[in-house]
Amino acid sequence: MADAPVVTRFAPSPTGFLHIGGARTALFNWLFARGRGGRFLLRIEDTDRARSTPEATAAIIEGMAWLGLDHDGEIVSQFERAPRHAEVALQMLETGHAYRCYATQDEIQAFRDAARAEGRSTLFQSPWRDADPADRPDAPYVVRLKAPRDGETVIRDQVQGDVTFRNDQLDDMVLLRSDGTPTYMLAVVVDDHDMGVTHVIRGDDHLANAARQGQIYAAMGWDLPVWAHIPLIHGPDGKKLSKRHGALAVEEYRAMGYPVEGLRNYLTRLGWSHGDDEVFTTAQALDWFGFEGMNKAPARFDFKKLENVSGHHLAMMEDEAILAELDGFLAATAKPPLDGIRRDRLSAAMYCLKDRAKTWGDLLEKGEFALASRPIQPDAKAAAALDAVSIGILVELTPQLQSASWSRNDLEAVIASFMDPRELKFGKLAGPLRAALAGRTATPSVYDMMLVLGREETLARLEDVFSSGRD
After folding, report:
1. How many CB atoms within 10 Å of residue 51?
2. What is the reported pTM?
3. 372-470 is a CATH 1.10.10.350 domain
4. 243 is in an annotated binding site
5. How far apart are CA 112 and CA 133, in angstroms?
6. Domain coordinates in residue numbering, the chain
């Protein structure tokens, strides 16, 4: 088993969209397999037919694709494998590792009520466990695992360490329901075995399941996978992650404009660490990721840290990569695409935008001056900066800008020579310039904007302000 190629899997239930906790589980499995040249498989656990929807399945697949978590082989449907699950249960019947239980729900409840009244364990002990297999009443039955009653089951977990469960605290779980359909616990084990999964990496809320599932492996004589139960994600207040904390669908993070590399980096750090490294590339994560860096305690989701990490990644990205991912963001949020001169200007402005932005929305907001078309419509604050005195200053400045060579040094020199004799401070001039060129007061520097827009567009935007003032 130790020398076998690594095979991991992600097995979501399509009863809702891919939430951020599921995305991190998928990411951990992907990193572990890909970093070791192994295989990463996708299984949709769609046995809950009443709640499973094609839309949720599609959203899970799309969310994983956006995160860059490619999987190997065909997607496995757990529902379609029900005959195989039943086949394994029948094999356990034949070998004596399972039995038919004819106990009714009323009988089970009566057993538990009596046990509770007598202060005994309410764990159901079926009277059919040791019955003669030939004694088969003409009545509905379930198939139960004949679990060991004595001793202990030890889960040797790569994250949690050795976790021991007393066997007398584990019941004879149902493998097949009375209608012949397999239970989740059976289906998971059979699927993982048949798919060749070597490492089961999942949330630590499944730790108790591992003890019961391990008994199925033992009954079938199958090798156990390597267990790794990772800590859950909590909110900043230490409580279970909820929507107010950030327990949102992955698509919502995409719509909020987080660059995918930044989100992957942040999710990797939720419950795992590599020394003091906070910002790293996916290539580095693939090289570094392993169980030794895993924490036992729940990770805490923090939007401020996510924004900080995302900002670092945005600043590190090549301009062409930014524009490509920006196209996807605009399409996913039903915003108009970048084209023509707007795309060229934003590309030219990237040097003064990407170091200051944390999300795609932030980048677009800071780059609005490059995207806007004439005449620029100022917001309320910008309009207030364009009073009669300020417009008069811009009218005087414009002829001197017309003769500038349009390099940064020359533009700085022209504006300095304009301000000095008039005893103007730069802020007195910068405010109206920002308002005229961008229609807002929070922008990149006026020099960056003039260089990106060019002489013709800069002067035309100033002329629009004059014309508006005259009107």
Report:
1. 12
2. 0.91
3. yes
4. yes
5. 25
6. 1-74+231-316, 80-230, 372-470
C-beta separation of 186 from 216 below 8 A: yes
243 is catalytic: yes
Catalytic one of 243, 304, 305, 381: 243
The fourth-level CATH superfamily of domain 80-230 is: HUPs (3.40.50.620)
Cis before 231? omega within 30: no
DSSP 351: G
The residue whose two tokens read 């995918």 is 260
CATH of 1-74+231-316, one of 3.40.50.620, 3.20.20.100, 3.55.10.10, 3.40.50.150: 3.40.50.620
Written in H, E and C, the secondary structure of 233-278 is EECCCCCECCCCCCCCEHHHHHHCCCCHHHHHHHHHHCCECCCCCC
Question: 283: which residues sit within 8 A by CB, 6+ positions away?
Answer: none
**Could you tell me the mean pLDDT of each successive run of 10 residues in the chain, 471 residues long?**
82 90 96 98 93 92 96 97 98 96 94 91 91 88 96 95 94 96 96 98 95 96 97 84 69 94 97 95 97 92 95 97 96 92 95 96 95 93 92 93 92 94 90 94 94 96 81 51
Domain 1-74+231-316 shares a fold with domain 80-230 = yes
